Amino acid sequence: MRGDIVIAGVGHTAHGKLPDRSTTSMNVEACRKALADAGVEKGMVDGLFVKYPTSQHRSMYGQIVAEALGIQPRIGGVWDQGGATNISMISFAAMAIEQGQCEVALVTIADNPRTGTRQAYERAWGEDDVYGWFGTPAGYAMIARRHMEEFGTTHEQLGAIAVAARRHGANNPDAQLRKPLTLEEYAVSRPVVEPLRRDDCCLISDGGAAVVVMSAERARSLKVDAAVPILGFGQGQTSWEVAQRPSLTETAAAVSGRTAFEMAGLAPKDIQVAQLYDCFTITPLMTLEDYGFCAKGEGGRFVEDGAIEIGGALPVNTSGGLLSETGMPGMQLVIEGVRQIRGTSTNQVPGATTSLVSNQGGIMHTHSTLILGA
């Protein structure tokens, strides 16, 4: 399948606080923009893959979105792997297209935890309340603390990830938070759950985003101007709750990344820019390790001294990621990956021909990987 399926169009709403916007309306807006970007009429869409909204889950939500779009897809529905859902849905769409189950698919996400309810982020996960853990940050704090104890990872190394994301986001006109951050400012930001500080934690955002997926052959026949080939994808699932895992410093990114690299026929050394899920700073650090960009335990040293900033060895989250562009879980990273291959990013990596994107769900429960190429 390598290169046989493409992302033909991308679209998104504004990011941040969008009062009085339903998740349905944001999905429709994002899909409309993605179709316009691809130059495709909605009547051609026969696949619809929708991420469930964490702030307001509704039964048959995929059908609600289809009705609002005015389409009747052959295949579709709602998927839930947390933040890993977006890339997973793109891979499901790609496989459906490859097998002739649909020809043109919309993959879309919208949520409004900023102005709706953020209960999904505040409640205990599983039986976490038994350990006194409430809210999403608690589990990540335990993982970060274990990584620090096991490998000597420092606050300053986590801060380097926050500084890079905020520097990139400050140059992105669509970013929710356009304020650069220094390591000194990071060091005095308030603690949330030790060892995580405020600037280790992603934004809470309303918004929607969508992509159009089709075969490369169909894109050529439709004369799509800027279709981006999908070279590889993969998934991995830890599944167990944090307290039940045999190791807190290994993630399903290892399985997901290996699958994607094998499919693409590439290795980490071939990747020129990466968009890594950064719900908390510890997440991209461990993802870099598990993808093989560095050895286990060396992620902290890998991100130091501007190595993941524009001009560094591996620019990461060039639109600002979840820490600066939008906390909306994951599709914005795919869109920035597409922009990098198209050469249209506001923080363009010169000559980028390979772009890796990671998505991660829950408290490192699920992982999905996408590799795009020119």
From TrEMBL:
Q: Which residues are in the Thiolase C-terminal domain?
A: 234-373
Q: Does the keyword Cell membrane apply?
A: no
> Which CDD domains does the UniProt entry name for this protein?
SCP-x_thiolase
Sorted keywords for this record are:
Transferase
| Matching SUPFAM superfamilies | Thiolase-like
Keyword Transferase present in the record's keywords: the answer is yes
The record's annotation in InterPro entries points to:
Thiolase, Thiolase-like, Thiolase_C_2
Coiled-coil region? none
Instruction: List the Gene Ontology MF annotations in alphabetical order.
Output: acyltransferase activity, transferring groups other than amino-acyl groups
> This chain belongs to which protein, by name?
Acetyl-CoA acetyltransferase
Q: Which species does the entry assign this protein to? A: Nocardioides psychrotolerans
Instruction: Recall the taxonomic lineage recorded for the source organism.
Output: Bacteria, Bacillati, Actinomycetota, Actinomycetes, Propionibacteriales
